[in-house]
Amino acid sequence: MLKITQKRSHIGIPEKITKVLESLGLRKIGKSVIKEDISSIKGMIRKVSHLVTVEKVDK
After folding, report:
1. Measured CA distances, 39 to 5, 19, 20, 43 (Å)
2. Going by DSSP bridges, is the β-strand pair 52-56/32-35 parallel, antiparallel, or unpaired?
3. Over the stretch 9-50, which tens digit does the pLDDT of each residue have?
4. Is the pTM of this model over 0.85?
5. Cα–Cα distance between 21 and 6 in angstroms, integer?
6. Among the residues of the chain, which ranges form H helices?
């Protein structure tokens, strides 16, 4: 499992990247979500890596 935390704002960022953040469930700075460690999630994280931090978590 991965804990994804939004660290920077999406203001001034292209709409495509804002939509990726929303699909991950991130809307505000400091918000965290826990997602499965699968390739589709990793691809989304790669797109927004400059806005989030990622930690590995046990179930």
Report:
1. 18, 18, 15, 6
2. unpaired
3. 999 999 999 999 999 999 999 999 999 999 999 999 999 999
4. yes
5. 9
6. 15-24, 39-47
Domain segments of the chain as ranges? 2-56
Q: How far is CA 9 from CA 26, 27, 54, 59, in A?
A: 10, 9, 16, 28
Tokens standing for residue 35: 């997602």
* Structure-block tokens of residue 21: 């953040």
Q: What are phi and psi of 46, to 5 degrees?
A: -60, -35
Top-tier CATH class for 2-56: alpha beta
Q: Tell which residue, 47, 22, 45, 48, has the closest CA to residue 56.
A: 45
Quote helix, strand, coil % in the chain, to nearest 5: 30, 25, 45
